[in-house]
From TrEMBL:
Cellular component, GO, one term: microtubule
Domain TORTIFOLIA1/SINE1-2 N-terminal: 16-228
Protein name stated in the entry: Microtubule-associated TORTIFOLIA1-like
Domain of life of the native organism: Eukaryota
Amino acid sequence: MSVFNTKKQSQAQARDLKHRVLTCLHKLSDRDTHSAAASELESIARSLSTDTLPPFLSSISATDSSDKSPVRRQCLRLISVLSEHHGNSLSPYLSKLLTAIVRRLRDPDSSVRSACVSASLSLSSHVTAPSFASITKPFLESLFREQDSNTQTGAALCLVSLIEGSQNPDSGSLKRLLPRFEKLAKCESFKAKAALLTLMGSVVELNGVLSSSGKNLIKNLVMCFVEFV
């Protein structure tokens, strides 16, 4: 088979896959067809090849607020499925996946926001080739910059999941962030204090964080936790 014919065949397969995925996404909005569509999408996700990963990712990343919450939630669930079955093959698409998660942090549906946290855990657990810093960066940016309380909460809880799932969380860089977390907790405009304290607790529990910290940092942390108890 010529290179030209092979390319045409690949393009046709990509179109067929995209059509199949979009059909399933549409069916997710209907209660009667949701379960079957979700199962089919997860089956597709598990069986993707290197060539079919990009069009699939493009399809599930294209959802927005106009889509119904079952669609938005299932697309995040698919990120978890992809992570579990394809692992580091997803590394080239990490930015797209993280963007898809971060975009949904402000979702009005709490089940969608919970799916963000689950997807973050799966990514951190199974996509291990990228640096810890590259995975946490967009969530830290959202935590420090966003004013929306749902986004603040989601970013903090996703960071907790990233720490929990990572085989090698960067305890040094996380420890250096503790003073910024403390300052954020005391900021009146920051609303997600409970989630932030959970994040700070996760950092403190990492090996070596407290043992290598100065007395002032430990004292400030204790006072910060006591203040919000």
